[in-house]
Design a protein that fits this description.
Blueprint lengths: L1 E9 L17 H13 L2 E5 H7 L8 H9 L7 E6 L17 E5 L10 E4 L8 H10 L4 E4 L3 H9 L5 E7 L23 E9 L2 E8 L4 H4 L1
Parallel strand pairs: 1-6, 1-7, 2-3, 2-6, 3-4, 4-5
Antiparallel strand pairs: 7-9, 8-9
Bound molecules: NADP nicotinamide-adenine-dinucleotide phosphate.
């Protein structure tokens, strides 16, 4: 399974403001770029924190992108996989009325009728990401698009599970020591290395496309 992280970030390295508000700060072009990445995916991974704040997820709207999915033998919409320890998500969120397949990836033994599938993979506290990746691949997911937020993405960097990274630099400064960044936590003992594959600028935004350089598993231990 190939996993692709897609994030927008301010020039000072923040993916949201200090209040973690739902304010969208990238351009319509970046929205289109995000839609194109989502349209490539068999499934999309999103943290419960992001979903609670935004209320909806990114689905494919452009009929041409949907048509291309059908031609590739994919479902009309990628599966939206929500990551949550608690599974505590308001059933009135607009997300639950979006016409998309929904899975829940959780550590808790819970039943939620709003989800087509519940995957319980972990030790009660944390999702076992390595096992989750194997399970998702076994369930036929070849391309996974990771949409954030910060806590989920940090866990995935720590587990070395991000294969590609699309990063849009937006012409803003948020500041704030608590504003989330693309990798937080206590810091990676060994920095992850990336190779720059493509750069593009549109207006004042810069679009970067990186691929992770695979290091020997021994180096990452
Ligand atoms: N700029 C961008 O491209 C971009 C993209 C996405 C999000 N964002 C921003 O990021 C912010 C949200 O990020 P966030 O860090 O607060 O939330 P998040 O990463 O979206 O979700 C955090 C939640 O995920 C679950 N979770 C996290 N780690 C887990 C683990 N190891 N095992 C099981 N479940 C786990 C927990 O859910 P439960 O609490 O349900 O147990 C946790 O509360 C928002 O401000 C949003 O706007 C920005």
């Amino acid at each position: 399974m190939r996993s692709t992280l897609v994030l927008a970030m301010t020039v000072d390295g923040k993916i949201a403001d200090g209040d973690r508000s739902a304010a969208k700060f990238s351009s319509p072009q970046d929205f289109r770029h995000l839609e194109e990445q989502v349209a490539q995916a068999d499934a999309v991974l999103i943290g419960a924190g992001t979903l609670r704040i935004h209320g909806t997820t990114m689905r494919v709207l452009d009929p041409d992108l949907i048509q291309a999915r059908v031609q590739r033998g994919q479902t009309l919409q990628p599966i939206q996989i929500v990551c949550s320890r608690s599974g505590d998500l308001d059933p009135d969120l607009k997300f639950f009325r979006q016409p998309v397949p929904r899975w829940l990836l959780t550590t808790a033994s819970i039943k939620r009728k709003e989800f087509d599938r519940v995957l319980q993979i972990g030790d009660g506290q944390n999702i076992d990401w390595q096992r989750a990746w194997l399970e998702l691949a076994n369930l036929g997911i070849d391309r996974l698009c990771i949409l954030g937020g910060s806590e989920i993405v940090t866990a995935l960097w720590e587990q070395d599970l991000v294969d590609e990274f699309h990063l849009t630099i937006c012409p803003l400064i948020f500041g704030g020591s608590t504003a989330p960044t693309p990798c937080m936590g206590s810091g990676l003992a060994i920095p992850r290395q990336l190779e720059l594959i493509e750069t593009k600028s549109i207006g004042s935004e810069v679009y970067l496309y990186y691929r992770r350089i695979t290091l020997s598993p021994k180096v990452l231990l």
